[in-house]
Amino acid sequence: MATKLSLLQHLSRRSFNGIIKRAPFSSSSSSSSSSSSFSSSFSSSSSSNEQELQRLCGEFLRGCEEDAAEGGVGSVDLLLGREIAEIKLNNPKKRNAFSGRMFLDFEKVVTQLESWKEGKAVIIHGAEGAFCSGGDLDFVAKSLMFPAVGYQMSLFMTHTLNRFASLPLISVAMVRGPAHGGGAELATACDYRIFTRTAEVRFVQARLAITTGFGGATRLAGIIGGKQALKFLCSTDPINMSNGRQLGFCELICKDAEGLDITKVWLSDVFFKAPADIIGHYKRLTRPLDTTALRQRHLEESETFRETWGTDRHFQAKADAAAERLRSAAGQRSPPQSKAKENPQSS
Ligand SMILES: CC[C@@H](C(=O)O)C(=O)SCCNC(=O)CCNC(=O)[C@H](O)C(C)(C)COP(=O)(O)OP(=O)(O)OC[C@H]1O[C@@H](n2cnc3c(N)ncnc32)[C@H](O)[C@@H]1OP(=O)(O)O
Fold this sequence. Notes:
The protein is of the alpha/beta class. The protein has helices spanning 7-14, 19-22, 33-40, 48-69, 100-114, 137-144, 147-165, 182-188, 216-224, 226-235, 259-271, 276-285, 291-308, 312-329, 339-342, and strands at 75-80, 84-90, 121-126, 170-175, 178-180, 192-196, 200-202, 239-240, 252-254. The protein folds into 2 domains: 33-257 and 278-307, 2-enoyl-CoA Hydratase, Chain A, domain 1 (Alpha-Beta Complex), CATH 3.90.226.10; 311-347, no CATH class. It has a 6-stranded mixed sheet, sandwiched between helices. Helix 4 (48-69) packs across helix 7 (147-165), helix 8 packs across helix 9 and helix 9 packs across helix 10 (226-235). It binds ligand LP2KCY5N. Ligand LP2KCY5N binds at residues 94-95, 97, 133-138, 140, 178, 180-182, 204-205, 212-214, 321, 325. GO terms for molecular function: methyl/ethyl malonyl-CoA decarboxylase activity.
């Protein structure tokens, strides 16, 4: 039912209901350089819905700026080559989890790529043996555990990944090691995925009693079909070298050390006979026919995320998962799941 409402109607009924007043990101008085650079990326927006989207994303970015100013770790680095751009997620001590600073960086990288006319492809990968372990749980715990702020994050990342997916470039996620939670969602925003032997794409959100926040469920269903997507989202089973190609999720599997080189050779062999502008035209001409329905589904995904994010059940499941990680690091068996996970009314 929520999806039938316009974003603006929906927000006025549900977003600013007091929860957001407690949320650290709710301050809307200050303006900042990166929020204004973000705003400029909505250049064609004129409707009130899009202004509202812009405002909420701006608020999320201001919170990210606070994290960066307080010494937030990690970065998203862009390396522009002759034909290929490389985006490196760089927070290796946390398996390249997204800190506030990295959300900011990622948006800036997408803005830069939007004006890169010479390029043909972009590869996204992670530093030091991991792709990305999702949101930085320290940043999440400090600043994001409110439904209204989770919603801001979800709108922001879904929109930024849609901008990324619309670049006139062939995009590839080179997945080495874990791509969990938001990291798995990131991999779905690319045109193609190349796995190394250690790749493990896992939509762990269900275990955390939340749904996907970055548009990943909609995108996964587009890649492997609704029936398979439903299984991997609910079971949290991994997509890896044993099933990735069969599912149509990844194109190739290679050794860890060769991931980047193989990806570049594959891009060049398959795509680079075409000039950059022709690649851009074909990107546009092969995009989904019904983008309105896609946007509507993404909005529904963000609204569903808000329903599940920051609830008691989410807090409990997050604590259970952390305890489980500690136990498995210590080589112990896990006890039964907590009651909170079984009872959707507990939030
Ligand atoms: C916010 C968006 C939301 C969404 O919409 O999906 C999310 O993304 S929620 C976050 C979902 N992600 C997770 O729950 C992943 C948690 N991490 C893991 O399960 C494991 O770390 C791993 C990714 C499978 C890697 O395992 P392993 O290689 O064995 O490494 P360690 O577990 O020892 O981790 C090393 C180091 O990194 C820290 N770490 C890992 N992930 C995160 C994270 N997401 N945020 C912050 N820190 C993270 C981990 O705590 C270890 O730190 P030290 O103990 O200090 O070395």
